[in-house]
Write a structure and sequence with these properties.
By secondary structure, the chain is mainly β.
């Protein structure tokens, strides 16, 4: 497997400049000021580490699908049955940076994890670079700054909600429309779909390829967390949300380091250090 470049070199390349319109960019390893260099793309394995033992008592909420010749995994959270939480790290501690660390620290009386996925972009320490609310506590304010990389590919957006009420809005729409703090919220970018249409800088199937993941809400209010099982374009992931999920809004979560933990099947991806993690459990 290819390895990411040293963090110091990534920060040194912060002045790469914004991507030209119409040519989607790769996920950036974003430093404190929003700069960085694209992480490796392409033929990633799910993990080099042995998979954990499947949790047979928990049915998988994830299904493998094929769309336009690409293999994807679609994990569905239903607000009638499931709870969504964002997790960064232990209270007053450093971010977990991966599912294994999260699993090791999860208390015995916590509800079983249905599935978990990386949930937004982060700096070199694993801390979110955009709006982030965990358990009703806002740890990072909304970021409406311009800059390089996928996060700043405007419009970006916020995935947020509470008990059984989940939404995706562009960051500007969120700023002007949402007054009450949600139970959870994470900002990432770019938006994949806006009112049922592809982001204006995302083509149907551009040349950029990497493992990617995102979130979108279907007409029934369910959240679809989709991760590609091979390198794909922004456009292919966006079109899956448009054509199959029938979402009006969908948000890109990351690429290159995109990872899924599905205890029911024993899958626990580990492509690189993570930041925010979304955890879905039974109510």
């Amino acid at each position: 497997m290819k390895r990411a470049l040293p963090l110091a070199l990534l920060f040194a390349l912060a002045a790469c400049g914004a991507q030209q319109a119409g040519e989607p960019v790769e996920r950036m390893a974003i430093g404190p000021n929003g700069g960085g260099k694209a992480l490796p793309t392409g033929k990633d394995k799910a993990s080099d580490a042995p998979s954990p033992t499947p949790t047979e008592s928990v049915a998988s909420a994830c299904k493998q699908v094929t769309f336009d010749g690409a293999k994807l995994t679609d994990c569905i959270a239903d607000p009638a049955k499931h709870r969504i939480a964002l997790v960064l790290g232990p209270r007053d501690g450093a971010p977990y940076r991966g599912f294994a660390q999260l699993a090791a620290k999860r208390s015995d009386d916590a509800p079983p994890v249905l599935f978990a996925m990386n949930a937004g972009m982060f700096d070199g320490e694993g801390k979110p670079i955009g709006y982030y609310v965990q358990g009703g506590d806002r740890l990072k304010e909304l970021n409406r700054n311009d800059g390089p990389g996928n996060f700043h590919m405007q419009p970006n957006g916020v995935f947020y909600g509470g008990k059984g009420d989940w939404h995706i809005r562009t960051s500007n729409d969120f700023y002007h429309s949402v007054a009450d703090r949600p139970d959870f919220g994470t900002q990432s970018g770019p938006m994949l779909l806006i009112r049922g249409k592809l982001h204006p800088e995302i083509t149907e199937d551009g040349p950029s390829r990497t493992v990617r993941n995102g979130v979108g809400i279907d007409p029934q209010g369910r959240a679809h967390f989709v991760i590609s099982d091979e390198a794909i374009s922004f456009g292919k992931l966006a079109r899956y949300y448009r054509d199959v999920v029938k979402a009006q809004e969908a948000l890109y979560l990351d690429g290159g380091v995109s990872a899924l933990w599905d205890p029911a099947t024993g899958r626990m991806d580990s492509r690189g250090p993570l930041g925010p993690i979304v955890v879905v459990s039974e109510k």
